[in-house]
Design a protein that fits this description.
Helix content of chain A: over 70%
Number of domains of chain B: 2
Shape of chain B: elongated
CATH class of the largest domain in chain B: Alpha Beta
Distance between the termini of chain A: 44 Å
Oligomer: heterodimer
Low-confidence stretches of chain B: 19-24
Low-confidence stretches of chain A: none
Largest sheet of chain A: 2 strands, antiparallel
CATH architecture of chain A: Orthogonal Bundle
Radius of gyration of chain B: 23 Å
Order of helices and strands of chain B: HEHEEEHEEEHEHHEHEHEHEEH
CATH class of chain A: Mainly Alpha
Number of strands of chain A: 2
Structural class of chain A: mainly alpha
CATH topology of chain A: MetI-like fold
Number of helices of chain A: 12
Number of strands of chain B: 13
Chain lengths: 278, 286
């Protein structure tokens, strides 16, 4: 009886595992099947490096280069704003935070992770739009805030994983509290912090709803950080509702480009994790 | 510690500077809808922002600097939050957080739209297959839409086709019909369906939302009984289908409430949205 149950449970577990793999495979197949005809018709180089996106014109133009740049600019901005704040917060939480304050800050940071992105978007529309308009800087600030929980959480875990002896050894050599933390503990947690940054980048590049609401969404290459941009994700969501035929396939191909970006990010995350294990 | 204080001072100075910079200049902030939106295509065609070449080319010349909003509400929020913004929405969605400008001296109100004096108006159509034997229930539903009751529903958000329609006097036939097409017409059709089912509980109506073109082709092929369209029917479609106007919608150009501009000419609107006019001072009459 119990052996039968064992077998049954094993089958159920295997099936559950297969479902998630199946989902990934299906998504890849769907993306490829829909994107490749469009890429062939438009031309891969014209699609990736074309500077003009005018799907409603006759003849239409499908160039996602402004959107690729847009995603990169906005993500870089988010990293510049979010990472220093996030890492320093993690240092504070792990090394010099009074216990009472920790009980207040930690749940606060966790709550930040749970806020839906539309709510961030509304916040951005109300606070950032009047200051900076729909622009790279607005989107970067908003995304910088949104990646904070990821960066803080993982960095803090990495800092806590550093053996206490590093810190104590530094103290014994005559370093002060801050010097010991920044010169001994922080470098030791380097790869963990890099991993946190990479996951933060992944979050920023994939974010859609909040970005659409504050980025301005112009499909052209911007000249300054006070101009608007359109990211890969917003390009898809903006036009998916009405698109048909080649336009629709071109949007799916945009998704493929995004997918490749995420793949690169995940692979570098894995590589970092493997290196830190050694 | 000093460094932090210094950074805080610099940051707030930068923020104040940019905030002032935005309110003092009068560069027009153009807000448009996304490519493929029916409102955008109607608007760009009305003001000849979309150029049609003799060789069949179509070029949407909306300025690339225009902020793209994917919903009417987002257009309104953007315009109400920026003193120099300009956008366009359906008259049905206009509220008092923004100001609608007159076009060529004509204000966007019901009377002017009905008389045809207000330029930026479009009709909402339904279309049925040309045939001698008409589906009893779809005919009854259309009669209801054009009746006093139906037009009262239309009048809540759009402009009615006629003011003195006769009250509904149908026989309340039983049966099922499918309505398909334009997403712009969909909301009012949903309300018309509710009102109709209240007077004729025997009927069953299914509404499918897609777009005008696919709704019309569905009706041609007999896949649906009534098509919804937010654009005029093309000649090829008119050979097979009978259109009926059920409502009139106007597109209003909106600006921030603090903006002194209250009238724009068609040329000015074209100039602003194609990026030829980039400063409000050009349009101010004083």
């Amino acid at each position: 009886m119990s052996k039968k149950l064992d077998t049954l449970m094993r089958v159920i577990f295997t099936l559950s595992a297969v479902i998630s793999i199946l989902a990934v495979t299906l998504i890849c197949v769907f993306l490829a099947a829909n994107a490749f005809p469009a890429l062939r018709e438009i031309g891969v180089l014209k699609f990736l490096f074309g500077r003009s996106w005018k799907p409603s014109d006759i003849p239409p133009a499908y160039g996602v280069f402004p959107m690729i740049l847009g995603s990169l600019y906005v993500t870089a901005g988010a990293v510049i704003i979010g990472v220093p704040i996030g890492v320093l917060t993690a240092v504070f939480l792990a090394k010099c935070c009074p216990k009472r304050l920790y009980k207040l800050i930690k749940p606060g940071v966790d709550l930040l992770a749970g806020i839906p992105s539309v709510v961030y978007g509304f916040f951005g529309m109300a606070i950032l739009l009047p200051l900076f308009g729909g622009s790279i800087i607005s989107a970067s600030i908003l995304l910088g805030i949104m990646i904070l929980p990821t960066v803080i959480g993982l960095s803090e875990a990495a800092l806590r994983a550093v053996p206490e002896s590093y810190y104590e050894g530094a103290l014994a050599l005559g370093a002060g509290h801050y010097r010991a933390t920044f010169a001994a503990v922080l470098p030791a947690a380097k790869s963990g912090i890099f991993a946190a940054v990479i996951l933060g980048i992944g979050r920023a590049i994939g974010e859609t709803m909040a970005v659409i609401m504050v980025a301005g969404n112009q499909a052209r290459i911007p000249n300054s950080i006070f101009q608007g941009v359109r990211t890969l994700t917003s390009n898809i969501v903006l036009e998916m509702g009405y698109a048909e035929g080649l336009h629709r396939q071109a949007l799916i191909a945009t998704g493929l480009v995004l997918f490749v970006f995420i793949l690169i990010i995940n692979l570098s995350f894995q590589a970092l994790k493997n290196r830190s294990k050694k | 510690m000093k460094a932090i204080k210094f950074a805080a001072v610099v940051l707030s100075a930068v923020m104040m500077f940019t905030a002032c910079g935005k309110t003092n200049n009068s560069t027009v902030a153009v807000i448009t809808r996304e490519d493929g939106s029916g409102t955008r295509s109607t608007f760009t065609e009305m003001f000849e922002i979309t150029a049609k070449g003799d060789d069949g080319t179509v070029t949407d010349n909306t300025t690339l600097e225009a902020t793209v909003a994917n919903q009417t509400e987002v257009v309104i929020t953007n315009v109400s939050g920026n003193k120099n913004a300009i956008g366009y929405i359906s008259l049905g969605s206009l509220n008092d957080t923004v100001k609608a400008v007159n076009i060529d001296g004509v204000s966007a109100d019901t009377t002017n739209v009905k008389s045809g004096e207000y330029k930026a108006a479009r009709e909402f159509f339904i279309a049925t297959q040309k045939s001698d034997v008409r589906n009893q229930i779809s005919e009854d539903f259309i009669n209801f839409i054009l009746s006093a009751e139906g037009q009262a529903v239309v009048g809540k958000s759009y402009i009615t086709v006629s003011d003195n329609a006769a009250p509904y006097a149908g026989e309340k036939p039983a049966g099922k019909i499918t309505v398909a097409g334009s997403s712009s017409v969909y909301p009012v059709m949903e309300k018309l369906k509710e009102a109709y089912l209240a007077v004729n509980p025997n009927a069953e109506i299914e509404i499918q939302m897609s777009d005008s073109s696919s709704g019309l082709s569905n009706a041609t092929e007999g896949l649906c009984d009534i098509a919804m369209s937010s654009r005029k029917l093309k000649d090829a479609e008119l050979e097979k289908l009978d259109p009926t106007t059920i409502a009139i919608d106007a597109i209003v150009v909106i600006v921030n409430k603090e903006n002194e501009v209250s009238n724009l000419t068609s040329d000015e609107i074209n100039g602003i949205f194609t990026g030829k006019i980039t400063d409000w001072s050009v349009t101010r009459q004083d």
